[in-house]
Every structure is written in C-alpha cells, then in structure tokens.
C-alpha cells in the first residue's frame, strides 16, 4: 500500500509532500475477555503479504490527524502513542483516524461503544454488524454509519473493512 500526502510546495504548486510504502500495520489475537478487538498486539513485518488467521485481525492506520501541531501524523515513532493512539479505539477531541482492518475467519468482537462518528465500508469478504436490535450482513461496497452507536462485529469467512473515525468533540 502506498501512502501519499499532498499539499502546496515552496513554489506554491500542488505536489506530493510525503510518500511512503511503510504504513504501520498491527495484528491482534481476539479474546472475549479483554478489549473489544484485541488482547495482544504486535507490528507486522511485511504488511503487503500478511493475512490474519482465525479469530485474529490486522489493522493498518492509513492516516491519523493531530491537532497540536495540526497536521497528519508522519512516520516519526514519537507521533504514535499507546493510548490514545495506534490500535486504540479512542479518538481524542479534534482528531480523525482512517484505518483498514482485516479480520480472519471466526472473528467476533464484544459489544462496544466508541466515542466517535464512524464511517465504515466493507471492501472484501463479509462482515456482520451486530446491533442491540438486529444484525446486518455487509458485503463489498456496503457501508454503515455509526454515530457513537453500541455495536459488535463478526465474520465467519473473514473480511476487510475501511473505516474513518471522527471525534464528535471540537478541540
């Protein structure tokens, strides 16, 4: 996966200011006794070829914005923190997070609540969105809007999702 950050260069022209193929990807093992999506996590050595196994997943944080100073989080490890930060479901005030997650066959999260406005899209496979009143099967191209809504995810076959999380709280 290539990542391009555009902007205006020193000559006032639109340009690619930063490009990299080294986005951070984490993998986790599922547990019904811990946080909604993971018990242990580790960085993936080769994200381009990694496939999650049964009851596990992988998350690539494509972009995260920060407010102080404003901008896109870069490759500097100091830009990433444990909580809130990469592999955290927290989206602090004024922050957005765009991620791609792949789930292995048999994955299921606990019912959870994120204090964010989430825009989710199924890219591959099949994901089941579990709400308190019903379950919805999402297939490639299907989307869901979750404005601070209690929910869980399940897949029998495995699936890949893109999601944008936006803090509903101004900085």
Automatic annotation (TrEMBL):
Top-rank taxon of the source lineage equals: Bacteria
The Cupin type-2 domain, residue ranges: 102-166
Lineage of producing organism: Bacteria, Pseudomonadati, Pseudomonadota, Alphaproteobacteria, Sphingomonadales
The species is Rhizorhabdus dicambivorans
Q: Which InterPro entries does the annotation name?
A: Cupin_2 (IPR013096), OryJ/VirC-like (IPR047142), RmlC-like_jellyroll (IPR014710), RmlC_Cupin_sf (IPR011051)
Q: How is this protein named in the record?
A: Cupin domain-containing protein
Q: Which residues are the signal sequence here?
A: none
Q: Which Gene3D superfamilies match?
A: Jelly Rolls (2.60.120.10)
């Amino acid at each position: 996966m290539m990542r391009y950050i555009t902007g205006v260069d020193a000559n006032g022209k639109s340009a690619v200011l930063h490009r990299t193929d080294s986005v951070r990807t984490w993998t986790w093992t599922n547990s019904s006794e811990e946080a909604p999506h993971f018990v242990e996590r580790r960085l993936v050595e080769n994200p381009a070829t990694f496939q999650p196994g049964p009851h596990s997943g992988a998350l690539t944080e494509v972009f995260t914005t920060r407010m102080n100073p404003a901008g896109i989080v870069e490759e500097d490890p100091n830009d990433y923190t444990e909580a809130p930060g990469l592999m955290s479901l927290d989206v602090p005030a004024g922050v957005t997070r765009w991620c791609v997650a792949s789930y292995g066959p048999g994955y299921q999260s606990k019912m959870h609540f994120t204090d964010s406005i989430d825009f989710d899209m199924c890219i591959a496979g099949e994901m089941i969105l579990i709400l308190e009143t019903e379950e919805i099967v999402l297939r490639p191209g299907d989307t869901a809007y979750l404005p601070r809504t209690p929910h869980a995810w399940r897949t029998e076959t495995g699936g890949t999702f893109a999601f944008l999380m936006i803090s509903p709280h101004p900085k």
